[in-house]
Amino acid sequence: MSKSPKKKASSSSLVSSSQGQSPKKEASSPLASASEGPGDAKKSHFFFWPEWTDAEVNAEKWDAAKASKDVKLFDDPEGQVELPASLRVHTWKRPSEYIVIKTPVVVENEAAFDLTSANEHLLSSELMRWIISEIYILWNVCNTEKGMPVSIEAVSNPWRPWEHIFSLCKAVKGHMPLFNAYGKYVIKLYWMGSWRKITVDDMLPFDKDNNLLLPATTNQSELWPMLLAKGILKVASTDISVSGSGRELGEFTVIHCLTGWIAEIIPLKSWFTGNIWEFLRGNIAQFQLEEERSEEKTTTADLTTVMDSNVDEINCESPTTPKSKATGLTPTPLMVVCASYQPLHLLEKRTSVLTKMADSSESLRQVGLSQLYSHPVLLNRTRDCPLVAPPKPPPVPNWKLVRPRKQTNITDEPKETPIQKPEQFIEVSSPFINFKLMTMAAHDMEQGVVRRTGYNSNLTSFSEMDDGEDDHTQNDIIQNSLNTLDATETSQVTAEDKKKDDSIASDKVGVETSSNPEKETEGTDKQRVQTAKESNSALLQSHDALASEKPLLQETWVDLLNFTKCFQTLLIFHNPNTYTHQCKMSHFKNSISSQLSATALSNAVASTHSVSTPARQPDSTGTIHTESADHFLFVDNLLPTEIVICFSALVHWGESAEEKRESSTRPGSLTAKPFSWKSIVSELPVMQFQTTASKAALLSLPPGRHVLHIHTRALFAIHLHLCCMSPFVFGDEETVMPHLDKESLRFCEQAVMILRALGRVVGCFSDPEELPLATKDLERTHGVGIQQQRVFNEAVYQMFCSALGRKLTSEELFAVQTLTGDPSHHCSNNKATDARPVDDTPKGWNGRQATDQEMQAATVLQAGWKGYLVREILTAARPGTKENLTVTKTLQEMWAPVESDIEKHAVFLLRHMVTNGEGIAEGYPCREDECNRITFTDYSVPIPEVANSWILIFREVFHVPKDMLLVPKIFSPLPICVVHVINNDTLEEIPRVFNRVEPHIYTPNKAGYTFVAEAHSGDTSVIGGKWRMRLIGSREPLPQLARDTPSNNFSVKELKGYYIPNEKNIICRHVVKVSSDHNATVQFQTSKSDVYIKLTILDHEKEIASNQGKGHAIIPVYCFLASNGSSVAQAGARQDQGSLTAEGRVTGGGGGKEGSDQHPTGTLFHKYYVQAEVLQKSWPLDDSLNSFIQKLRDIERNEMKVFGDILEDTSEPVGMDQQKMDSQKSTLKSHKAKEREKDKDKLTKSNSSIDQILDVSKPHWTLRVVSEHSETDSIEVKKDTERLEEIRAMKLAWEAAEPGRAAKAHQTRLRYLKQLESHTGNTAEGQELVTAEAASVGTQPQTQQSGDFSVLSQNFGKNDIDYTPFIRRSLPKPRLKDEVLEEEQRRECSEKFQSFRLIWDNILEQRQQERITRKEMMKRHVETYIGFQDIVDDYRQKLMHAREAFCSGILEEQSHKKKDELPVEPVEQEKFDPTQAQPSGRKSGNKKK
């Protein structure tokens, strides 16, 4: 669409206005006040059209500036509307500028209108054709009957197009808009799920030939078509056509905009012709002959349907609903069916598509339509019979019916049964049927074709039609022949023509002719056209007289086969008010563009019945995120369900036509697929489509319970509208999930059927005739086999106990056993048996076992009692006996409370059967509904107000009473939140998929399951936020919390430090000490996010729990056991579980095995370490950090010195005597050293506090140990200095055992170093001579330091290297090599050779055996292949024999038929001419010879 010239900056006119807004507030909005001119304050470029409210329209100031004469008329603040690209705008005019004979009016003729005669120049625009056609269709559907107008009295609330226009009137029913000289009008149109208020002005576009470029009636003083079209064009501008299609509109429909009816678009395919016919027969009227109508009048006289439509005061008629003649009301339609076809693509290159286009064009030409001028048509009726009833055959005399003769036609050719084509026609209505064919001459005259005499023929084209349509075709030709003149000429005289004088006009024509010779010919042509028009003024008058009488839509019949060739899509408009259940949802983006002003952001509006959610703001790169929404649809129905889903998307806003063409807008999409909260498997979508405006689709669901996940996405706004005749639930999770706790309707229906069948058995238990039938009916209803019959019997017993609310008496128990025919013990009072005390045993049987004879006696007694009971049950089950009457009376008394609440007890019965009987649920259709039955419980805790940090939110233990499927679902305002579930017995973590715990069947255990939730807070803390976990299961009971309420009052011990690379790749190592058993969560984090780390918990250097991660690792929960006797029993129980180390998997808690040889048997000693390692050398450091790392290493080296401060002053060696004299001093110094060590411990503690303040720019790590706030004092975590303490203790022990040892060692070291220095000095002189000689020959002399080092290294190499390991060993005593020694050596060699031979022979034998095995295997393979081939050959032979037998049978049958048919003709010939029968037989015989 090309953008027309604007007089001012345009905008998209989306102003929000709340309901009940005062006029004063309205005046302050950019589009509210009528007094607002174009020179007012700067307006925002982006607004939403406000929702419609009658109060705002009633308070509108239409002519606030009318009193002042010099004031400028109203201009649309949004700018002029965008017209299609095929219409070129030259000027814009007010109605008063070209209508001067009389005052313009909005509506003049309320009975009828003609939008085709005066708008031929607009038919080149596809959008204009759709606007005109759909207005005609809507008028025809709502206000006419069988194509003829209906009187006002016959229609209670007719639809009038001008009722969408408001000007100088109140918003009341049946209002009439008036002409506003100020030029302000309000249009009421439906858009994005609600009626909108759209403001337009009366500026009208004209082309260079002074043709109005908006639809108009034949009376151009009427303004309603132009004003309504301007509003429709505004809404249509929000749609985008498919790129490359050449169309002017996408999926925008005018009927949806004018009525709010839902437009369902169905593509037509030729291979679905049968389905299309069945659909049309069921949804539109059917053509009937007069005789059939008279027969059906008696049956349909009482069937009248009156349906009131509340879609904003529009009541319309549907072809599919009967009319009520008694009341005279037009019922509201359920649906209106239209068809459309696409325009011709002249640039198409695919041959297959060109073939289809040619067939479609020819088919359309036959029915009077043109492929070039696509538009929607209305489907009125279907016809499966001829238009005129065929004449009845003459009556046959009775004497001819006695022995009727068979009519035979003797021919040489074989007879072919004629194929009768079924009568299948569809009646279509359109305002453009045969229209262009009749107006071609006048159209060509306007284009200057008068000069070409080759196309001046006035012959009309004929189309192939039935005989019954001749009269109709003649009428069409007569009516359309009036259109051969220029239809745009009207009886109104423009203001310019009124002011101009004829002489002045002739002078101007002369000037134009002299200036441009080409315009002379154009003026001559126009003069000829004008002359032709004036000569046919009589025809024009007759045309105006017949304009109101002719039907608005022309009708024709289309064959079904040609229907799919002519049209490509079906447009089905559903009236949402005819559906009993409907729901709307809307999501509008707060930020439409980065250019939005604050006013526009605050004015984003959604429907009054919808939900408006804010969208994400654009990011720093300017990328605009799409608006997406997730909803859930829940349906539970015993019958198939059909839901109409209408999806509206706003994919662009506030863009010019050029920007639309340049930008690649992504259409909005809707996807609906089955969903279950108990599964992570993604199902295939059942519905998926895209749209740029509004589109609907029919969702068909089979009987049962269904949950669908509906995901929608669009750039700016989304609207969903669901309509259905059955109840459904639509919304978010919080809306849908509470409805899934109940049993499905199919489950309840099946349960009630079973219980009613059981009730019929109880009712006729004493009737010998009805009882067998009722019993068979019960068996057929519950459908369980012999193996599950016992489960059904037990369920019946439990159902009676539940209904009565107590245990059954002996009589009632016997009655139930008789009813079920089962004397088993499961029908006895198990509760009474279980309630019996265990010690209720005779004294003589305490402490002894029964003998074999006693066991046999007990077995005999039990068998006898069971036999007696079975006989009693059989007797009571036989009708007519006394026992049967007693049991019947008891059962009827028990059945009364069951029947009072039959649905509840029926569900209890069937649920007990399904739960306790394996495979019973598979026999019922309701088994498919079990996946959508859920129950849930929520647990919520407050979120700590911490910013940009890791936090532990939740850690609780749950106990599972029985096997159940559970799914935890998290609702958290934090961006990152992960849940871990740990089995406390096996120490394993439940697997996770995409950081979500997968559905898992939890089994009962002793210690339960620990649910741990960790999160990372964002840059800003969440104030007053709530974290919620929802446990979803199939049915109650759900897991029980170990304590009453969850708590997240945790204490965190946080340790930090710098990373120092080392050979073992250990980042840090800490010791954990606990005074009592302590549950803790350990988390480790590095400053670099892509470091692969491993977090490990060690007990005596044995790995018992570990986890790996990238920049972050966590052990969700671990129980540190105390090292004292009180926890021996607990630790022993944990020892039995064994140690678990999981690579890449979190292990929960528990201790490892402790060897009995390492610790005393009385107590257990645990020594826990928490260690973090770097994996795969993934933490490299820059060279710029070398100095910093060296400083850290020096600090560690200084911490390892024990006597450094004692020996700092000692610089000279001291003798032994001096050492003895100073022994006492050294002892005192050792005591001082111990004191210094204590001081160092204090310093290390202070250093640990100092380490908490780190330079975040340096590589560092953080270790967190989280525990309950009440158990904080029972755990201690500190750096592992055990090795350093051991070295210190060792040195102190040496010093204590030998005082002065440290000083002596220090002096010895100094003496050795001095000796080395002196030795180095002696060799330095010779080195100087060598260096001098080297300098004489030109070599570089070495420095004194390097020479000393080289000499020192040479002397060290000569004197200190031990070569003994490299010397060959020899015997302690030499031995003579004699014969005995040689024999021994020979024997040893032979033994070696022999052992090698044995090994080699074994290898060869093994290889030979493998070779034989391979050959046998190959042989078996060949035999197997041959066997398979033989079997295939046998089957093939059998198949061929069967085929030959079948073919031979067919051939024989055909030969027999031929033999049977051949004698018939000779016999008949003998009857007529016996003399010629014999010669003909002989001739045929001679020919055969």
Describe this entry's structure for a reader:
The protein contains 38 helices and 42 strands. Strands 8, 9, 10, 11, 12, 13 and 14 form a seven-stranded mixed beta sheet that branches. Strands 19-18-21-16-23 form a five-stranded antiparallel beta sheet. Strands 38-37-40-35-42 form a five-stranded antiparallel beta sheet, with no helix packed on it. Helix 9 (351-366) crosses helix 17. The N terminus and C terminus are likely disordered.
Percent range of helical residues = 25-40%
Instruction: Quickly count the helices.
Output: 38
Poorly predicted runs of 5 or more residues: 1-46, 298-332, 437-549, 591-624, 828-836, 1125-1163, 1211-1229, 1242-1252, 1329-1359, 1467-1489
Give the amount of beta strand, in percent. Answer: 15-25%
Structural class determined from secondary elements = alpha+beta
Termini Cα gap = 85 Å
- Averaging pLDDT over every residue, what do you get? 74
Q: Which structural traits does this protein have?
A:
extended; 5-stranded antiparallel beta sheet; disordered N terminus; disordered C terminus; single chain
